[in-house]
Amino acid sequence: MKQRTAQQNKSLWLFYQLLADELNAAGLDQRKVLKPSVAIPWSKDSIHDMLWLPIQEAMLGKESTTELTSAEIDKVYETLNRHLAETTGVHVPFPSEETKGL
Question: What is the mean pLDDT of the chain?
Answer without folding.
Answer: 89
